[in-house]
Amino acid sequence: MKDSTKSVKEAIDPTTGAITIPIYQTSAFLYPEGEKYRYSREVNPTVLELGKKIADLEKAEAGLAFSSGMGAISTSLLTLLRPGKKLLVHVDMFGRSLRFTKDYLSSWGVKVDVAPAEDEAMLTMLEKGYDVVMVESVTNPLLRVVDIEAIGKLCRETGCTLLVDSTFATPINQKPLEFGASLVIHSASKFIAGHNDVIAGLIAGKGDLVREIDMMRRTLGTSLDPHPAFLTIRGMKTLKIRMDVINKNAQEIAEFLESHPKVSKVYYPGLKSHVTYAVARRVLKGYGGVVSFEVKGNAEQALRVMKSTSIVVPAQSLGGVNSLISHPATMSHRTLSPEERKASGIKDSLLRLSVGIEDVEDLIEDLDKALSKV
Description:
Blueprint: H1 3-8, H2 45-58, E1 62-66, H3 69-80, E2 86-90, H4 95-107, E3 111-115, H5 119-126, E4 132-136, H6 148-158, E5 161-165, H7 170-173, E6 183-187, E7 201-205, H8 207-220, H9 226-236, H10 239-258, E8 263-267, H11 277-283, E9 290-295, H12 299-306, E10 313-314, E11 324-326, H13 338-344, E12 350-354, H14 360-371
Helix pairs in contact: 2-9, 3-4, 3-8, 5-6
């Protein structure tokens, strides 16, 4: 089946024949009839169905749902790492992911190395040997497309486990397992659920690995409630058609911004000017729904633009049907030090735009009016 069919297809409820998965809003199940489920923190039928759906979309052996994207990341890393193990990440990733690896895992005795924001440096470091490597397939917020084909090949040769946070790419634009990843991670709060009304995380990958992480999830309690699981399943049904529109809208907006006199630089993998355009053409099927750009001036001018839109909403999240705009230096990446933001390339004049499914002409007009304020 194609992605659009997999996104829509649901298992029929065996008890009632319901054509949509019910919300099993219960903490426990009758024993022994409910022995498979027992307790919803461990296994819940609605949540279990969501795990199956992400596994299908990613062409994985198994999938699993969590209470958030960070819950998926932290649980996965805590499963795979122990004091003395070695982890490699890159500096230009989501701020909280970097904080968790650099601050917590390092204090716990894990050897954490942080690669610069370029593939060649990471590939050179990889040759030293690591137990786990974690990358973002498209980085947040400068949209560097990581060459997971090359990194996946080297990970296989050196025997390390590759984790790929593919939140920005989605299963529609890329399937990291096809490039040698052992595990793919999603903040399902973003494009997968797609309506800015859910907090959820997902993983998909090799069966044995996912089952091992599942045991840690049950212990840590990073379990997803059945109601957001239901909402995420409902959102997934339109993932393919939403991403088709979002990919198209984002490309047009990126091209508009690149020619705007009030914009000094645009970051979008679909632009020939982007530093990883060649890599993007090779490893992505679509360029995604996030466009980052630098306003001419400083933080004051950038914040003025962000606060001057009328259709685009100033908010920290991304991936929904409605467009959102944020200021990474004071929002998503505020936990990074000035030195870390500089190393990641995040300037005070940078804005991150999450493009929705609105009419693209309306979005362009709204952005043009906002930019006219500086």
